[in-house]
Amino acid sequence: MKIRGTTKIMGVIGDPIAQAKTPEAILPHFDRLGTDMVCIPLHVAANSLEKAWRGFEVTRNLVGLGITLPYKQAAAGLCDTLDPVAERVGAVNVVRRERDGSFRGYQFDGRGFCSGLLQAGHDLEGRDCLMIGAGGAAMAVACALMEHGVNSLTIANRTPAKAAEVAELANRVTGRRAAKAGPATPAAGQIVINATSLGMNADDPLPLDLGTIDDSMLVAELVAEPERTRLMIAARDRGAAIHSGMHMIRAQVGLIAEHLAEIHG
């Protein structure tokens, strides 16, 4: 890979950012598409997003941004426009500079998560799910799970009102009534999804009581770094099937690269 004066930049912003997997995962897709483009992590400190955003807008060779924790909802409010999926979930994970120079927000998290499950051989239609977390990625995943025909979706969060808000959004967007707020207590046969940031650090508390996990369940992460979180290792030891957050990353980076290349390739 050569960096030239003509090279275009996709940034990935977050706080922290050391866990970001997109920069490494997307580069082969830029190469596959023949683009003169790189992806770099940008550590935007807490409470500095608006200041950083003004810099992004005037950096003319910055063609897009990947958005990770904790900025998925805040970035949606700074975009000039949102695509319909991002608008309905109120969060973005990709921003593209459009042909007119404006920033438009997009949402690939839900599509990437469900595609990753399907590619790994885990059917979604008719399944019962428990998702822990109610942030921007969780909103997108909730809607995508409902659209893929899950039988039920229980959303747990340390702030119950936030879980109820995400459940209502998923019901409203999909025209179904399969989502509800509830406790972080898995039931037999469920897909159990950790949509919190717990697991990125070795000393993070677990998002649920391990004693509730059994071998009838699939435990899935949105956390991609580390690729095997403490929750996944413990769930595997209890006989559960496990699914890394890296599946979501791998499923969506090709789509994101093609999305940027449509205009900037």
UniProtKB/TrEMBL annotation:
Parts of the chain that traverse the membrane: none
Keywords: Amino-acid biosynthesis, Aromatic amino acid biosynthesis, NADP
Position of the signal peptide: none
Domain spans labelled Shikimate dehydrogenase substrate binding N-terminal: 12-95
Coiled coil: none
Keyword NADP (UniProt): yes
InterPro entries: Shikimate_DH-bd_N, Shikimate_DH_fam, Shikm_DH/Glu-tRNA_Rdtase
EC id: 1.1.1.25
Domain Quinate/shikimate 5-dehydrogenase/glutamyl-tRNA reductase: 122-173
Domain of life: Bacteria
Catalytic activity: shikimate + NADP(+) = 3-dehydroshikimate + NADPH + H(+)
Name of the top EC class for this enzyme: oxidoreductase
PANTHER family found in the cross-reference section: BIFUNCTIONAL 3-DEHYDROQUINATE DEHYDRATASE_SHIKIMATE DEHYDROGENASE, CHLOROPLASTIC, SHIKIMATE DEHYDROGENASE
Protein name (record): shikimate dehydrogenase (NADP(+))
Biological source species: Pseudohoeflea coraliihabitans
